[in-house]
Amino acid sequence: MATEARLPRIDFSGVDPSSPGAGRWAAVRAQVVDALATLGCFDAHYPALTPDLRAAFFDGAVKELFALPADAKRRNTYGPDKPLFGYLGGMPGLSNDYESLAISERVEPQSSSAPSPTSCGPTQTTPASGTQTERTTASEVVHGAARRMAELEEAVQRMVMEGLGGGKVPWRDEGVDAARVPDGSEVIRHGTHQDCSMLTVICQHGEVDGLEVQTGDGQWVRYKPSSPASLVVMAGKELRAWTNDRVRAPFHRVVVGGDVARYVAILFALPGLRIQAPAELPHCNDDFMRFCIAQGARHEDKLRDFCGV
After folding, report:
1. Taking a C-beta distance cutoff of 8 angstroms, is the pair 182, 259 a contact?
2. What distance in Å separates the CA atoms of residue 32 and residue 44, rounded to the nearest whole number?
3. CA distances from 296 to 180, 241, 262, 292 (A)
4. Sign of CA dihedral 260, 265, 271, 273
């Protein structure tokens, strides 16, 4: 049983991702580094992702997308080289009610409106009778919400590199995942795990909670947003490896109940490259992700098994 609690709250008001070092940057950076080193995640108050944009994104695009027939959703596929992207439903180790649709790489207006099999953008979320203007508007909404989340992630990654003395940011590949967990009594819908990303940014729709995070002493706390402008920023196992265990990658899970579906949008910052390390200790994110998938739903520390941090 989890205890309801607030994650460390960090206010990004007045922090301009395009102007690192200006204004409150240094003070916020100190809070970010401390939160990621101690708990591995925090509640980011980020008013740049406005309530109107959130509502348009979830109610005008995401819900319509998940309402499509399964065959249409399965058109979003990336093949065996990207096993965690595309449409995921009925996956081993996950609740049968869990669904997600993931877009690989940056979300730009042209990619979220292109009528291709690998696109899960608004051309698939608007009715067939919809006009091109409606589809374009939805595309801009999807891109706008994803862009705001990416700006926050970019600011946090720069702060981590500055705060830990790492210098230049070593990664820049991204994926965006929209997930839905349907109605039902309260059960674990997504089991205990750590993310394989460098950083994860989570945008929760409405007041349906469900994210639970394990603290260093083994206690579970349920995330309660501190404001309608809240996003969760969480460190993944790749950032933990890159910082030589100075940043925590927290175990977390999703526990949902009640009669309302839970919708979330998640941005995963993935290296997309080989992390530089001593020659005798190479580390490739793609190899690590394949290792995690092969190990299945075990909750042990897979990073230690893979590279012995």
Report:
1. no
2. 9
3. 22, 20, 25, 7
4. positive
Distance, CA of 196 to CA of 174 (rounded, Å): 12
Separation of alpha carbons 234 and 228, rounded Å: 18
Domain boundaries, the chain: 3-271
What values do phi and psi take at 271, rounded to 5? -60, -45
The pLDDT assigned to 31 comes to 97
Collect the ranges in the chain with pLDDT lower than 50.
Answer: 109-136, 171-172, 183-186, 273-275, 278, 280-281, 309
Q: What is the DSSP letter of 231?
A: E
- Look up residue 19 and give its amino acid: S
Cα dihedral sign, 75-153-271-172: positive
* Residue 245 phi, psi (nearest 5): 75, 15
Query: What's the CA gap between 46 and 205, in Å, rounded?
Result: 14
Alpha helices in the chain (DSSP H): 25-38, 51-57, 63-66, 70-73, 132-163, 237-242, 285-295, 302-307
In terms of C-beta density within 10 A (0-12 exposed, 13-18 middle, 19 or more buried), how is residue 102 classed?
Answer: buried
pTM: 0.76
SS3 309: coil
So what's the pLDDT on residue 116? 30
* Torsion of Cα atoms, 212 then 255 then 94 then 217, to 10°: 30
Neighbours of 307 (CB within 10 A): 17
Q: 3-271 in CATH: which number?
A: 2.60.120.330
